[in-house]
Amino acid sequence: MKLAVFKELNDQRVSIIPASIPKLLALGVEVLVEKSAGKEAFYDDQEYKEVGAEIVERSFLLSNADVAISIHPLAEKERSLLSSSCLLVAEFQPFNQTDISQKLKETNFQALSLDMIPRTTLAQSMDVLSSMASISGYKAVLEAARLLPRYFPMMITAAGSIRPAKVLVLGAGVAGLQSIATARRLGAMVEAFDTRSAAKEEVKSLGAKFIEIEGATEDTGAGGYAVAQSEDFLKRQREEVQLRASKSDIIITTAQVRGRKAPLLVPTSTVEKMKKGSVIIDLAASTGGNCELTKNNELVNHNGVFIYGDSNLASKMPQDASQLYSTNLLNFIKLFIKEGNLQLDLENEIIKSALITKDAQ
Predict the structure, then answer these.
(1) Is 322 a catalytic residue?
(2) How far is CA 281 from the centre of its chain?
(3) Catalytic residue (choose from 13, 58, 119, 196)
(4) pLDDT for res 360
(5) Which pLDDT value is given to residue 342?
(6) Mean pLDDT by 10 residues, the chain (361 residues)
(7) What element of type H or E holds 257?
(8) 230 contacts: CB under 8 Å, gap ≥ 6
(9) Gyration radius of the chain's alpha carbons
(10) Which of 132, 152, 199, 311 is most buried, by the most CB atoms less than 10 A from its CB?
(11) DSSP track, 165-206
């Protein structure tokens, strides 16, 4: 069985790093890696060769893959070059790309979507979304520090004292909690909001203040995503955010609702009450953004307030991101490749959740 690792076309990460190759070979598969697949993540071809992988051209992978591994799905044109018996493994995002399952079924492909791995304790070692969210939360604070024309920590100097920056984090999931921890390490005063009351203790344990707004709809089974709220609650939430935002130097937003547009948390009127030089980092940019002025993958300057939208900040730390991704993916692959054979056990809850083409023939 040939396991093919493709180079990402618009991402610096690579799905499998050299350190994972020997463990894959131990499963009884041949590992074919596209030429320069790891270059942007600082893993060169020689490293892959030294641990037993074969370096080949993309065209060879498309012709010979039994299992096609990538972070982003292969384009439809390239999928047509694969054998229909090839198993596809990638982040297909079926909640956002609602027609992808049907398209794959029509061409008889079986596909495992990495973003559909349940975010449970049992699947924690395979959870690529949590791994990448943690990196995004960390990187969001560094991007904010880069853009902010002020210090993060309190500074006592001969020329006078500088107050610490005030950071507001909206959404205390994996990314939000990492943002809180990182901002606190840099010496900022941090407060955070989340609709889940269970997040309160986590936020407080990191040294941040938790903002409470009564009446939130909670759903512990939402898989780490936000839950759609009533318009009355959203109105009260926006009013509270506007009050806090006017005093904040940085806002980091992380709220996404699976399969729906990201909730609007920071309208233009709120941005216009912020101090000049303030920064908003919007991690929900790819699904419309939590800030009304967000443009995905762009830096917007609105009356002296910087709004940076990027839902894929993990790719800007490609080496560590690839290492974590590869480890998650290796643990997942062990579930369905045994002694060189493909074994998709639909009694396994993790496989059952990730397989988005259950009815493929």
Answers:
(1) no
(2) 14
(3) 119
(4) 47
(5) 95
(6) 97 98 98 98 98 98 98 96 96 91 91 95 95 98 97 93 96 96 98 86 96 68 58 78 88 90 91 96 95 96 97 96 98 96 94 86 42
(7) none
(8) 215, 217
(9) 22
(10) 132
(11) PEEEEE--SHHHHHHHHHHHHTT-EEEEE-S-TTHHHHHHHT
pLDDT number for residue 361:
42
**Annotated active-site residue in 43, 48, 138, 225:** 225
Query: Phi/psi zone of residue 306: left (φ > 0), alpha (ψ -120 to 50 degrees), beta?
Result: beta
- Which of 130, 131, 278, 286 is an active site residue? 130
H or E element: which one contains 267? none
Q: How far is CA 350 from CA 68, 256, 284, in A?
A: 19, 22, 26
Instruction: Give the residue among 188, 148, 196, 189 at the shortest CA–CA distance from 171.
Output: 196
Domains 2-126+318-354 and 132-315 share a fold: yes
DSSP for residue 295: -
**Is 2 exposed, middle or buried, given 0-12, 13-18 or 19+ CB atoms closer than 10 A?**
middle
Burial group, residue 284, by CB count within 10 angstroms (0-12, 13-18, 19+): buried
For residue 233, the model assigns a pLDDT of: 76
Give me the residue spans of the domains in the chain: 2-126+318-354, 132-315
Structure tokens at 358: 């259950």
Of 36, 124, 319, 353, the active-site residue reads 124
Return the SS3 of 53.
Answer: coil
Q: What is the pLDDT of residue 98?
A: 87
Which CATH superfamily does the domain covering 132-315 fall into? NAD(P)-binding Rossmann-like Domain (3.40.50.720)
To the query of whether residue 124 is one of the catalytic residues in this protein, the response is: yes
The tens digit of pLDDT for each residue in 141-189 reads 999 999 999 999 999 999 999 999 999 999 999 999 999 999 999 999 9
Give the burial string for 63-88 (b: 16+ CB within 10 Å, else e): eebbbbbbbbbbeeebbeebeeebbb
CA 166 – CA 189 distance, rounded (Å): 5
Looking at domain 2-126+318-354, its CATH superfamily turns out to be: NAD(P)-binding Rossmann-like Domain (3.40.50.720)
130: annotated active-site residue? yes
**Nearest Cα residue to 241 out of 184, 293, 189, 291:** 291
CB 173 within 8 A of CB 254: yes
